[in-house]
From TrEMBL:
It comes from Streptomyces armeniacus. This is Oxidoreductase. PANTHER family: MERCURIC REDUCTASE. Pfam families: Pyr_redox_2 (PF07992). InterPro entries: FAD/NAD-bd_sf (IPR036188), FAD/NAD-binding_dom (IPR023753). GO terms for molecular function: flavin adenine dinucleotide binding; NAD(P)H dehydrogenase (quinone) activity. Residues 5-120 form the FAD/NAD(P)-binding domain.
Length: 300
């Protein structure tokens, strides 16, 4: 059987797992990444549900980079640094168009571009002044928050729990304002005494000379006004979907079962409910296997 050329878009856990599986099946792979291999993992302080003894995101990121270097050294994988602008599937190939103007062509593409953090303008429960930009909680160090007088976190997404587990001895107090849809996630950190959580309907955030002034409409308890010197975003994420032929579901994510047969979806891009490192790795390998067996079973 002839060697298959596979394009893999994104070099996080799902993309690297896809490249490794492809190599084991004799496929030559081009791995495309805008940043560094495993870049987002660098800011994840604690890993508790990833097999293999990994305890920190930076350690796993280093391991992924080593895997890619090994594939490159064996001539089984080429790493291309570039921003993907568009992915197009045809009857016999997939084209990946880069922002730089280049085009890469393969028999199939595994798309593992992951997610972006939501911004205040992406959610309907926050009104924020135009000049206000919220740093994400998951990229914030313990030292930064220990030095703060009053820290407010907007949103109860799971990076809150990850941050707390990564910094178990940090002397911080986090005032978390969250919408009702995040209630089940807040329950996971309810026993941490460093968290004071308030379910809210709406918040208006405006910069002031003293920091950030917040007018909060609580679900129970009426209006609350707060002034914080540090306000962090933790509202969740949205899929990072390149233009082209990827099919989105009603929630904006890309279900694997409805895509072009040569476009394979892996990692966090599949669904808001499968955003875990271990499931991302499995999905990357599974996408490649699905493509491999489809090619094997196809009539010559």
């Amino acid at each position: 059987m002839r060697v298959t050329k596979l394009l893999v878009v994104g070099a996080g856990p799902a993309g690297v797992a896809a490249a490794l599986m492809a190599s084991s099946l004799g496929m030559r792979t081009t791995l495309i990444e805008a940043g560094q291999v495993g870049e987002k993992l660098q800011a994840i302080g604690a890993l508790e549900n990833v097999p293999g003894g990994w305890s920190k995101g930076a350690e796993l990121a280093e391991g992924l980079a080593t895997d890619v270097e090994r594939l490159q050294a064996g001539g089984r994988c080429a790493l291309v640094h570039g921003q993907v602008e568009r992915i197009v599937g045809t009857d016999d190939q997939v084209e990946v168009v880069l922002a730089s103007g280049g085009t890469l062509v393969g028999n199939a593409a595994v798309v593992a571009t992951g997610v972006h953090s939501l911004r205040t303008q992406d959610v309907d429960w926050i009104d924020a002044s135009a000049e206000l930009t919220l740093p994400p909680l998951w990229r914030t160090s313990a030292g930064e928050l220990e030095a703060a007088r009053h820290t407010v976190v907007l949103g109860g997404d799971r990076p809150l729990g990850t941050w707390l587990r990564a910094h178990p001895h940090a002397a911080v107090e986090l005032e978390v304002l969250y919408p009702a849809v995040d209630a089940y996630k807040i329950a996971e950190v309810a026993e941490d005494p460093r968290v004071r959580a308030y379910e809210i309907e709406h918040v208006v955030a405006q910069t002031s000379v003293d920091g950030v002034h917040l007018t909060v409409e609580q679900t129970v308890g009426g209006l609350l006004t707060v002034t914080a010197d540090v306000v962090l975003g933790n509202m969740g994420s949205k899929p990072a979907v390149p233009d082209g032929d990827l099919v989105r579901g009603p929630d904006g994510y890309c279900p694997p079962t409805v895509q072009h047969p040569r476009i394979l979806i892996a990692g966090d891009l599949r669904s808001a409910r499968f955003q875990r490192i271990a499931s991302a790795q499995g999905s990357g390998a599974e996408a490649v296997l699905a493509h491999y067996y489809r090619a094997v079973d196809a009539p010559n």
